[in-house]
Every structure is written in C-alpha cells, then in structure tokens.
Amino acid sequence: MTCKSTFLNRCDRYTGELSGAFADLGTFLPLVLGLIALNHFSPQGIFMGFGVFALFTAFYYRRPIPVQPMKVIAALVIAQGLTPGMLQASGMMMGVILLLLAFSGAISWMAKQLSPAISIGIQLAIGLQLIWMGGQMMGETWFIGITAFVVLFASRFLPMRYLAMPLVLASGMLWQYTSGMAPSFNLSIGTSWQLSWPSIHEWTSAAGLLVLPQLALTLTNAVIATSAMAKEKFPSDTVNGNENFTPKRLATSSGLMNLILAPFGATAMCHGAGGLAVQHHFGARTWIAPTIFGSTCLLIALTWGEGIAAMLSLIPLALLGSLLAIAGLQLAWSKRFIDGRPFCIFVILSTAAICLLVNTAAGLATGFVLETARRQWRLVSDLRH
Q1: pLDDT (0 to 100) of residue 87
Q2: Is 272 within 8 Å of 227 (Cβ atoms)?
Q3: Where is average pLDDT lowest: 186-200, 255-269, 307-321?
Q4: 244: which residues sit within 8 A by CB, 6+ positions away?
Q5: Radius of gyration of the chain measured on its C-alpha atoms
Q6: Using 50, 70 and 90 to split pLDDT, how confident is the model at 8?
Q7: Per mean pLDDT, which of 123-132, 153-162, 270-279, 337-346 is the most reliable?
Q8: What is the C-alpha to C-alpha distance for residues 297 and 63, in angstroms, rounded to an integer?
C-alpha cells in the first residue's frame, strides 16, 4: 500500500468518524432545542448530560453506541409544558428501573424471549415513525428538506461519502443565514444551571405520565434492538471473552448515567437502534465518534451564550427532518425482507402494525404470542412424527 493510499484511507476514516458523530442530529436536536426553546429548561444541564454520557459510552464500549433523548418523555414534557422537576424525576426513575432489570437478570431473560423477527418488527415500526416525523419537519421548507434527503441518500454510492453530512449541514446553515428567513428555533440565553430536587407531586406525576409510556420503548429499542444491531455491526467485539453489547450492559450504562446526571438538569437519555444505524451509515466505527460528540456537547454547555444560541438557530428544521428520515430508513430496512421465511415476514409485519396502531408494548406482546404459537405448533408436529 502506497503512502498516498494510506493517507487517503486515514482521511476517509477520520472524516467518517466526524460525520458519524453528528449523524443523529435529526433525532437529537429537535427534542433538545424544544426543551430549551419552548420549556425554557437549562441548556447547560441538558448539554452537560449528553456530553458526559457520550464520553462514558466512548470509554465503556469503544464503539459509536449513540446517546439520545428518551423520545416519549421529551415529547410529552414539551407538548404538555411539564416542569424540570418532572423531567429529572423521570430520568432518575428510569435509571433505577434499568439497573434493577440489568442486575436481576430480567433484561437478559426478556431478550432471550424475543426472536429476531420481533426485534426487526419493532425496528420497522420505529423507523416508519421516524420517517413520518422527518417528512413533517421537511414540510417546513420542502426544497431544502428533499434536496438534503436526496444528497444524503445518494452519498452512500459516492466516493468520500462521509463528507456529505457535514457539507449538507453547513450548506443549510449558510442558506438560513443568507435567506433572511426567521430562525427555526428561538433559543433563550438567560437560562442558568438548574440544580434542584423534584417534589413528591413531581415524583408521582412523572411515574404515571412519563415513565410508564417510555418504558416499553426503552426496553425494546434502546436496549434489546440496539444490542442486536450492535452485534450485527461489530460481530467480533468482546470484553475479556464476554460480549460487548449484551442487553445487560446497555441497560446498565443507560441506568447509571440517568441516575447520576438527572439531578444536575440532564434530560432522560438512552441508547437507540436508529441512532446506531445512521451513525454507522455515515462512517462512525470507533470510540472517536462519541468522543467528538460528547466533547462538543460539553463545550456548548460550558460556553452557552448568545453566539452558540444564534448558531444552533441557523439549522433549518427541514434539514433536521431529512436526517431524521434517513435514520428511520436505515432502521426500518432489514435483509430479512428479502431472505426471510414467509412466517418470519408475517411476524415482522404483524409486530410493526400493532406497534403503529396501538403502542410498542402491544406490538411486543403480539410478536411474542405469534412466536410462541409457532414453537408450540412445531413441538406438536415433531411429536406426531
């Protein structure tokens, strides 16, 4: 290998890590900026939480395992105008629940009960939801949204494909700056660190309004589905002879970080299969990507002011929508749609349909019932023969 090809390979690798580090902004920024702009939560506490969690993830996994807001909790807090105390309480309760499930062995047992078809069905449903949400956000400025989506999708077939995401992001911000249009977000610069402890009412309200709706999604998408996808992306990873991406490890890292960081103003956080899919797609392969992302979040937390707020407000909402749609597309697609057996595809589609029509917990139960029925039928069939 020549010096020139070695240099180009290294450039491609580090460009991929940089591109992958910020590939999940379509999920991250709308919820985070919504909490700051609409609910006036502390930007310092929120960005500090993501920064510390991402740096811990880089050290703990040595791979680009994503760090995301817990979507149901963040969306409900924004939509219903809930208090910072309720957000903090939900993060700490989710942390305790995840740690209990991890160290009791319950999360490992749950993962074994779920066939790949059920996991793929849940991923399909969440992927379609992300595509729908991304499409709605792209509707703010269709030209920007569709152009960004086409460029990002086509980039996978082009050389130096990892440059596409940062170039699209920079171009969108430049367009927003020169077009004279109003910013997508009106960010407050006066909010300080929020160090507080939830009241009894906030604890009880958060348990029913936020934690219960979030729990099924976290266990399936952020723990079990992320574990399955990470093993697929990095099949050789082991730690002292043990698998790196077990559901127990993913539940432990999410639980521990939420329990520690929520009292300092961090939002409820988790991992996510969609984030892993899009980060891997844009070139993230090692600990470098989460280190870049985490360091950037910490820098924003420590230097938050008018300049940072103005810069973030230049990101067009339609561009974030295109990133969200790409993440959904990566998550929804599976090779099982091509090579899977008919009943496997039936389980996938049934699970996804119930997830979309009812909720994730109902979809999970549907897939479990179908797989249990299949096993029983096979057992009876084997006994007859």
Answers
A1: 92
A2: no
A3: 186-200
A4: 61, 62, 63, 230, 234, 237, 238
A5: 21
A6: very low
A7: 270-279
A8: 18
Residue 132: exposure state from Cβ atoms within 10 A (0-12, 13-18, ≥19): middle
Strands 68-69, 242-243: parallel, antiparallel or unpaired by DSSP? unpaired
Quote the CA–CA distance of 54 and 58 in Å, as a whole number: 6
The 10s digit of each residue's pLDDT in 26-56 is: 778 878 887 887 677 888 999 999 999 999 9
Reported as a single tens digit per residue, the pLDDT across 267-296 is: 999 999 888 988 998 889 999 999 999 999
3-state secondary structure the chain: CCHHHHHHHHHHHHHHHHHHHCCCHHHHHHHHHHHHHCCCCCHHHHHHHHHHHHHHHHHHHCCCCCCEECHHHHHHHHHHCCCHHHHHHHHHHHHHHHHHHHHHCHHHHHHHHCCHHHHHHHHHHHHHHHHHHHHHHHHHHHHHHHHHHHHHHHHHHCCCHHHHHHHHHHHHHHHHHHHCCCCCCCCCCCCCCCCCCCCHHHHHHHHHHHHHHHHHHHHHHHHHHHHHHHHHHCCCCEECCEECCCHHHHHHHHHHHHHHHHHHCCCCEECCHHHHHHHHHCCCCCCHHHHHHHHHHHHHHHHCCHHHHHHHCCCCHHHHHHHHHHHHHHHHCCCHHHHCCHHHHHHHHHHHHHHHHCCHHHHHHHHHHHHHHHHHHHHHHHHHC
* CA pair distance 292, 107, nearest whole angstrom: 30
